[in-house]
Amino acid sequence: MRRLFAFMALVVALLAPAAEAAHPHGGLAASAAFDGRGRLWAAYRDQGRVVVRHSGDLGRSWSTPRFASPEGEVVAVEGDARPKIAIGPDGRVHVTWTRPLSRPYTGEIRYSRSVDEGATFSEAVTVHTDRQEITHRFDALTLTPQGRVVVAWIDKRDLEAARARQEAYRGAAVYAATWNDARGGFDHDFKIADYSCECCRIALLPRADGAITALWRHVFEPDIRDHAIASFTPDGAVGPMRRATFDDWRIDACPHHGPSLAEDGAGRLHAVWYAQGPRDPGVHYGRLVEGGVEAERRVGGEAAAHADVAVSGPSVFVVWKEFDGERTRLRAMVSHDGGDTWQEHELAATEGASDQPRALVRDGRFHAFWNTREHVLGVWSLP
Amino acid sequence: MRAAGRLLFAVAPLLGTAQVQAQAGELRGFGVGSFEEIRRVNAGRPHIVAFWSNTCPPCVEEMPVWRDLLRNRPDVALSLVSTDGPPDAVAVRQRLVELGLGQHPSWIFADERVEKLRYTIDRGWRGELPRTYLFDAQGRMEVVTGRVEARWLEEWLARRARR
Questions:
Q1: Which of these, B56, B95, B31, lies nearest to A257 by C-alpha position?
Q2: B interface mutation test: which of A78, A324, A370 has the most B CBs within 10 A?
Q3: Domains, chain B
Q4: What tens digit of pLDDT does each residue of A141-160 get?
Q5: Minimal CA–CA distance to A376: which of A354, A361, A346?
Q6: ipTM of the complex
Q7: How many other C-beta atoms can be found within 10 angstroms of the C-beta atom of residue A89?
Q8: Which domains does chain A have, with CATH numbers?
Q9: A65 touches chain B (CB under 8 A)
Q10: pTM score, two decimals?
């Protein structure tokens, strides 16, 4: 019976791309964030467009969906690619997404915002000044405590330039741009680093001093896909890049599995990432320090995937999903001593398709956001 | 109108899921039992199942290796499986044609429970691409994550699938 249903769903999906919400593949990819009043906001793709909704009761009920992207504009949703959402201290709702262009891998990063609590969204703009039909994809969005909107993405302009010179270039680059309120547009793009991996999400962490720390999967020589970290200011002053993880995963492949980063009250950096290095393949947690990783440990079992991390004071919350052969489980672990000791929890499970989970914090309490076929835009709170 | 026509072009092959093997140039839906089926159909001869995605540069860079294998070693069965979903069927099909693999029967993931699909193939696989499973006539398996290099494949053929 299920096979028949799956087959029918497939046929329906192919015949009616507009009915994509009903379809599966990629249709579940969502982002979520709390605003200053404690309301949860979500962005995802429905009917081909970015839609935004909010919930005042931790996901039990959601507002009417509002479109944030223009009609007819394609929105990329695959692997780590999905629309992003962030809410400013002034209540403005910021959304980014990737619009694929006609050639393979090419795209533009697009931005729109709402100044009326998500009722209407501004005309979309392209974030980067570089307008070549090349890769600008895998947008990441953050806001500084001062309310500045910063977008980073994977960019292949340097790869293309190297190719034109018939020179070698590993992977892609990470670029960023900052919204300029006075000008009403984004300032000129700036480069964070050369040689990033090509299709893993970038983690952006706003710091108290207004700088931003980025963590991404890198391609270290010759083909080591471990992570790199660098800080930069919204005005484009980029600090030195250093290696952040040391799994020594040598591979010419697309892991489709990006990292996550959070900061505790003492300024320590907590990260989760995925690697299939020779030492301990799987999902990892650790505190990132100069030249190494502290308190490193495995997250979940062999099938653990797509972890996310959030922090509140000294408490660290990690969520991930794990398929057991029948069901996909939403699992979590929490530490109240900055990542030295942990308790594990199982929050939910589903037999159907599910998105990557998100770790969120509100008023010192942790919540997991998990969009599944069975439980749309679901929220599970840590007991 | 043009888009609708192209879409139907992609649908027709997927409707033929009752067939044991996809016909030339078709894209067949890959479901929970498909890996087992590919293995059963090809039991007793060397065969290779190569998973790839249209959005994965190393996968696309690897494709000439498979095109050459088809040309030079018709005795080795090759199943190309795209892990993109049905909404990407048209783009996947177009890419296969561009890569000179349009005439070869091919598969595309057709179950939104991708973790379950991967589990039926290999419990240790969390979606890295390309991912390739090579079987010799005795069913002995080798797994490659990342790009399969032409020289490596030649060595495998010499070791496991000598003519």
A1: B56
A2: A78
A3: 2-160 (3.40.30.10)
A4: 999 999 999 999 999 999 99
A5: A354
A6: 0.87
A7: 12
A8: 27-256 (2.120.10.10), 259-383 (2.115.10.20)
A9: no
A10: 0.91
